[in-house]
Design brief:
five-stranded mixed β-sheet; 16 helices; about 425 residues; Alpha-Beta Plaits; six-stranded mixed β-sheet; alpha/beta; Maf protein
Length: about 425
């Protein structure tokens, strides 16, 4: 049994919006236990849609489609499906009434454009949409079961979870389970080399997804039952974590800054940040997540040298002799931030993000980090390739990584 995700919309084929629905659906189908072998995209064109449906239905057992169910003239998915099946469109009265009630809440009446959203191929199973005006539907095209949902993610995702996924689970023989491990600090090729042999030893499939600047490692197992697949996947994931060590910072959808915040809350620690080249980016990453106020006391963007000296207490002579982009200044910034904000842990970041400012002694991408605690200060000097934006982002991540290592292992610990 194979499945395909079909995305319908000219805005997708023109690259006007990112096809996030397909990515999400492919992952959900894989977790259910379906083998997704194709993801197709077609414009709002009758010939293209009908041709794709005919081809995909002949080659796959399941089609999961999004898009083309709206009220405008280019929303023609229902019409095309009816044409492929050789049946007429029929109004589904309960859906039309649901549209009427929803629009009345907003002081609007149903127009012919809205009413056509209640027209479906004869014999279709209707998928209710309490989050919008476009119901979905399911039909059989030959031996293939096909599901059609709206393209708006906030409407599509609950419809899939409540009405499509339960049906798809009944089509799966055996079980599947996937563990998603999030990593930072090691190139994709190095991660791959470290994990050589795990697939054969455990009977799993390991996949990788590079999402700058992180690498996600996916450990997928298939077995006769879901419980057995889970056991196999989790055992293999434990070996992955053992081989990669602290490079693995979390599982599932957690991101790096969020994992650092969790560590601080668990240990009842407080954090402050002094930033120069990152311009507040580290603080933004930390405060993007609810609960940051429980541990994050504040940040100082010491972009100009006068702020480094006046606010953080960096000796002016140190800036003059060693330069603002130096290990010595980074250490002084971290220690100054810790004193000024009265925290357990303080991070400092200073560097050259480019594109200008390079000297014979200091290149674009040179970054100095320091983490200060009551027990001492640890520093790092790193060099990052890439654009200004990439250097800043890598510096922010590297700073949080150093914070994490110091909290986990102390100064001079696992470096």
């Amino acid at each position: 049994m194979t499945s395909v995700v079909l995305s319908i919309g000219t805005e997708l084929t023109r690259g006007e919006i990112a096809n996030t629905n397909a990515t999400w659906l492919c992952e959900e189908l894989t977790l259910i236990g379906h083998e997704v072998t194709e993801a197709a995209v077609v414009p709002d064109d009758r010939a293209d849609i009908k041709g794709s449906l005919t081809r995909l239905a002949a080659a796959h057992s399941v089609i999961v489609s999004t898009g083309g169910l709206g009220p405008t003239t280019d929303d023609i998915t229902s019409e095309c499906v009816a044409a492929v099946l050789g049946v007429p469109l029929e109004c589904h009265a309960p859906s039309l009434e649901a549209i009427r009630v929803r629009m009345a809440k907003f002081g609007r009446t149903v127009t012919p454009s809205n009413a056509k959203q209640a027209d479906f191929p004869r014999g279709a199973t209707i998928l209710p949409n309490p989050n919008g005006t476009a119901p979905g539907f399911a039909v059989s095209i030959g031996h293939c079961r096909a599901f059609f949902m709206p393209g708006v993610p906030s409407e599509m995702k609950p419809m899939f979870a409540n009405h499509v996924a339960p049906d798809l689970r009944t089509l799966v023989t055996g079980g599947a389970y996937q563990v998603r491990l999030r990593t930072f600090g090691m190139p994709e090729s190095a991660v791959n080399d470290r994990l050589a042999g795990i697939e054969a030893a455990h009977g799993v499939t390991i996949g990788y997804r590079a999402h700058f600047p992180e690498i996600e490692v996916k450990v997928l197992a298939r077995a006769h039952t879901g419980a057995e697949a889970k056991r196999i996947s989790m055992a293999a994931a434990e070996e992955v974590k053992s081989r990669l060590g602290d490079v693995v910072y979390g599982e599932g959808s957690v991101d790096f800054a969020e994992s650092v915040g969790t560590l601080f809350r668990e240990r009842s620690l407080t954090l402050a940040i002094a930033e120069s080249c990152t311009g507040g980016l580290v603080a933004q990453l930390v405060t993007d997540h609810p609960g940051a106020s429980e541990f994050f006391r504040g940040g100082i963007v010491a972009y100009d040298d006068s702020v480094k000296t006046a606010v953080l207490g960096v000796p002016p002579a140190l800036v003059t002799t060693r330069g603002a982009v130096s290990t010595e200044v980074a250490r002084a910034m971290a220690e100054g931030a810790r004193r000024a904000l009265g925290v357990d842990v303080a991070l400092a970041v200073t560097g050259l993000a480019g594109p200008g400012g390079a000297t014979t002694a200091k290149a674009i991408g040179d970054v100095h980090l320091a983490v200060a605690t009551a027990d001492g200060t640890t520093d790092r000097q790193l060099s990052f390739p890439g654009s200004r934006s990439q250097v800043r982002f890598l510096a922010a991540y590297a700073g949080l990584s150093l914070v994490r290592r110091v909290v986990l292992h102390g100064h001079g610990g696992d470096q």
